[in-house]
Design a protein that fits this description.
Elements lengths: L5 E5 L1 H7 L8 E2 L9 E7 L8 E8 L2 E9 L12 E8 L7 E9 L2 E10 L8 E6 L75 E2 L2 E2 L9 E2 L10 E2 L14 E3 L5 E3 L23 E2 L2 E2 L9 E2 L6 E2 L14 E2 L5 E2 L4
Parallel strand pairs: 3-9
Antiparallel strand pairs: 1-6, 2-9, 3-6, 4-5, 4-7, 7-8, 10-11, 12-13, 14-15, 16-17, 18-19, 20-21
Length: 337
C-alpha cells in the first residue's frame, strides 16, 4: 500500500487537530488532510455492547480497496467516549465511483456489531462522516462476505466486487439455489433472513444455522449462542460467571465475551457495600464505588447509597461536569438549558 492510499485509527488528540467540527446527523462538516480523504467517526448505537477491535472494509467501483483491516493494528480498542469509539482516517488515493464502507465490531474475536456507509464522489468534500455500529448484523444472501446494502451484486457471490456476472438476467437471482458452500442454496420459499428459525444451513441466507436460528456465522466454540433473548441471529457470548450449556472445565466459567475463563469470586456483597468490581456484588452492578441495584451509569444518576437516584441541580462526576450540569429534572444540559 502506497502513501497515497492508507487507513488508520486516529487518537483523540489527532482528531482534535484534524476535525473542525462534528455535528449531528449522518454527515457533518470537517477538514481532512488531503482532497478525497474522509474522516469516519465510529459511534455505538444505544444499548450496543462495546467491541475490543474494529475491522474495516472499503470498496469502490473497481473492487476491494481494503479488506479486514484491524483497527487498532495491535492491542485492544480504547473508546474515545461511551458513544464514540474513535475516528478513522481513510485516504483512498485514486478511486472510482462511490466508496462503500463496512465497519465491524468484534469482541474476543466474535463479530457482534456492524455499520455501513456509502460516500458518493461529490459528497467527499463534506469531510467527516458518521457510521453507527448496531448489533443487528446486515444480511448477506449470496454469502460472499459483502453485506447486501453495499454489495455490487447481492444476488450472486462476488467477493472481489468486480460487478455482476452475465449469468444474471434482468436482475433475477441466478445464484439463489447455487451459492458457495450452501450459503445461498435455498428452497422455493427463498433464503431465510438472520434470526429466522431453521434446521439446516442451506435454508439460511447467511449459510449458517446455529442454535436453531439463521446466524451471522457458525457461532462455534463454548460460551456463545445465536439465540439469546432479543438478539436472535447475532452470535453473542453468555454473561460473565454463567455457563448455561456447561461447556467450561471445572473452575472455569464464561467470561462474558464468548470464551471460558477463571470463575469470578463469589458475589456476596449487598447493595450499598463498597466494591471494586461487579463480580463482588450480589446485584451484579458496582457503580460509584458501591454495589448498586442497577447499572446506574447514565449522566445525572448516582448510586452512593446502593439505590440508583437522580442527581438534580448539580454535577454528576464524571458523566456530567462543567460546563454542563444536571438541571432540576435530572438531565445533563448546557448552562441555560
Amino acid at each position: 500500500m502506497t502513501d497515497a492510499r492508507r487507513i488508520k485509527l486516529l487518537i483523540p488528540a489527532a482528531v482534535a487537530i484534524a476535525v473542525a467540527a462534528v455535528g449531528g446527523g449522518c454527515r457533518s462538516g470537517g477538514t481532512v488532510p488531503e482532497p478525497g480523504a474522509i474522516l469516519l467517526r465510529v459511534d455505538l448505537a444505544a444499548g450496543a455492547p462495546a467491541p475490543d477491535e474494529l475491522r474495516v472494509y472499503v470498496y469502490d467501483d473497481t473492487g476491494i480497496l481494503w479488506s479486514d483491516v484491524r483497527e487498532p493494528a495491535q492491542g485492544p480498542l480504547v473508546p474515545q467516549s461511551a458513544q464514540t469509539l474513535g475516528t478513522i482516517l481513510i485516504q483512498p488515493g485514486e478511486s472510482v465511483g462511490t466508496l462503500r464502507i463496512e465497519v465491524r465490531g468484534l469482541a474476543s474475536g466474535v463479530w457482534i456489531l456492524d455499520g455501513l456507509l456509502e460516500v458518493a464522489p461529490a459528497d467527499r468534500a463534506q469531510g467527516t462522516f458518521v457510521v453507527v455500529l448496531d448489533s443487528m448484523l446486515p444480511p448477506d444472501r449470496d454469502g460472499d462476505g459483502v453485506p447486501d446494502p453495499i454489495d455490487d451484486c447481492p444476488a450472486v457471490a462476488d467477493p472481489q466486487q468486480k460487478g455482476c456476472p452475465s449469468a444474471i438476467d434482468g436482475g433475477v437471482d441466478a445464484g439463489a439455489d447455487a451459492g458457495p458452500d450452501g450459503a445461498a442454496s435455498c428452497g422455493d420459499g427463498g433464503c431465510a433472513p438472520q434470526g429466522t428459525a431453521c434446521t439446516t444451513n442451506d435454508s439460511c441466507a447467511s449459510g449458517f444455522c446455529a442454535d436453531g436460528v439463521c446466524c451471522v456465522n457458525d457461532c462455534a466454540g463454548p460460551c456463545r449462542s445465536c439465540n439469546q433473548p432479543g438478539s436472535n441471529g447475532v452470535c453473542l457470548g453468555y454473561a460473565l460467571g454463567t455457563d448455561p450449556e456447561m461447556e467450561c472445565a471445572t473452575g472455569m466459567t464464561c467470561n462474558g465475551a464468548g470464551a471460558c475463563g477463571k470463575a469470578p469470586p463469589p458475589t456476596s456483597k449487598a447493595n450499598g457495600e463498597l466494591c471494586n468490581g461487579a463480580s463482588e456484588c450480589m446485584s451484579g452492578f458496582c457503580t460509584d464505588g458501591v454495589c448498586c441495584n442497577s447499572a446506574c451509569n447514565a449522566p445525572c444518576q448516582n448510586c452512593g447509597t446502593g439505590a440508583c437516584q437522580a442527581v438534580k441541580s448539580g454535577q454528576d462526576v464524571p458523566e456530567c461536569v462543567s460546563p454542563k450540569t444536571c438541571n432540576s429534572h435530572g438531565s445533563c444540559v448546557q448552562p441555560g438549558g
